[in-house]
Every structure is written in C-alpha cells, then in structure tokens.
Design brief:
The chain is α/β, with parallel strands linked by helices and 215 residues long. The chain has 2 domains: 1-44, no CATH class; 46-205, Ribonuclease Z/Hydroxyacylglutathione hydrolase-like (Metallo-beta-lactamase, Chain A, 4-Layer Sandwich), CATH 3.60.15. The chain contains 8 helices and 11 strands. The chain has helices at 3-6, 9-15, 30-37, 106-115, 138-144, 164-171, 180-183, 200-203; strands spanning 20-23, 41-44, 50-53, 56-62, 78-82, 97-100, 124-126, 148-151, 176-179, 186-191, 194-199. The longest helix is centred in the middle third of the chain and has 10 residues, at 106-115. The protein is globular, with a radius of gyration of 18 Å.
Length: 215
C-alpha cells in the first residue's frame, strides 16, 4: 500500500489494458475500484495461489487467505517465479527461481521459514523492505540462499536504505549484489552454468555519471 510500491499503478491502468489486477491492499483502496472500472479482474493475493504463463511458474507465498491484519508491510504479496527451461546447474532441478519479497519484515520472514523453508529457496532475491534493519534475518537468508540479491533503493533516500549492517550480512555470504541507487536497473540472465548480472550504469554509462576530472 506504500506509494513507492503502488503509487504508479494508476498510470499503468491509464496507459495499458490490464486484464487482471492482483494486490495485497485493503478493500477500501481506490485501486480496486479503478481496476474494476477498466474491466480488469480483481484478485487479492493469498498464499497458495499458483499459475503458469508461457511455461513460467508463479506462486504466491504470502499473505495468508482471510482479512489482512497488521500494518501494510505485512500485507505484501510475496511471489516466487520459476523458469521453465533447464538452464542452471546450480539449481537442484535445473530451473531458476526468483523470490520477490516486497516489504515483508522479520515477523513474516519467521512465519515463512517455520512453514516451509524449502519453498523459499531461490537463486535470485529481491531484498525485503529495501534492505531495512527490520528484515533479511539470518534464518530467512539461510532458507533462500540466493546467488544474486537486488536492493531496490532510492538515491539518497531519507530512510538510509539499505542498512549498512544488513548490506554487510549479504556481502559476507558472497552473494552477487546490485542496488538501484548505485547501479540503476539490474538484469539477471540465466545462462548455462551461471547467472549473469547486468548493471545498467555499467553497460549504458553516460558521461554525467562520471566524476569531474581536474586539469
């Protein structure tokens, strides 16, 4: 429900035809009405939902079915996306998974770990809650065990995300890291034998990104 997650949704509705809108927001949120006005199917995300699109598997791990409880961070849809092709020997079955953890915090992490730690396993992790101190607990990282972790953070954001201690926790595990404030967009490509990470500011660098030189 936070604006840095859902604030752009209305612009999407205005710009493209949306057939289905899936979200973890309260029933009174105006986006539900906006989606229905445009003829979109509306579904509140809930653990256990699964679908396949073009051979790619999607599974919602959180929140639980029923009324949303607690603060908005606990309402977030946690989504696990798994590739169709056998492309990476690092994965047990040759498939690659990405865990998109939204803004969940330690309490939800503990619940997911206690419920089924194997289901959290993913080679790519979109870091929970922008790398805040309230998330990325050790048991959660032990369960996910990512090879690549992506920090979605705003440049010079007022919350000082990611927290230095949390960032160091990832770095100590030899995880390949990318962060949007320093790297721009990150693209992860599953290649035979490896995951390749492309950082936009490396491959699409512009002159204004470089520090000025002194004559």
């Amino acid at each position: 429900d936070d604006s840095d997650h859902s604030g752009g949704a209305q612009a999407v509705f205005d710009g493209v035809d949306v057939e289905a809108f899936v979200a973890g927001i309260l029933p009174a949120h105006p986006l539900w009405a906006s989606a229905r006005t445009r003829g979109a199917q509306t579904v509140r995300c809930a653990a256990g939902q699964r679908w396949r699109w073009d051979g790619v598997d999607f599974e919602v791990l959180w929140p639980d079915p029923g009324p949303l409880a607690g603060k908005p961070n606990a309402h977030c849809c946690v989504l696990r996306v798994t590739t169709a092709a056998s492309v990476a020997p690092e994965a047990q079955d040759g498939r690659v998974s990405a865990l998109i953890a939204a803004d969940i915090e330690a309490g939800v992490e503990h619940t997911l770990v206690a419920r089924d730690p194997e289901r959290l396993r993913a080679q790519v992790l979109v870091v929970p809650h922008h790398g805040s101190r309230s998330s990325s607990t050790e048991p959660f990282l032990d369960s996910v065990w990512p090879l690549v972790a992506i920090f979605q953070v705003g440049y010079l954001n007022r919350f000082h995300h990611p927290h230095p201690g949390v960032y160091a926790r990832y770095a100590a595990r030899d995880i390949v890291l990318a962060r949007s404030d320093a790297d721009g967009a990150a693209r992860v490509e599953a290649r035979p034998g490896a995951l390749a990470v492309e950082r936009f500011r490396d491959t699409q660098r512009r002159y204004w990104m470089d520090p000025p030189t002194q004559d």
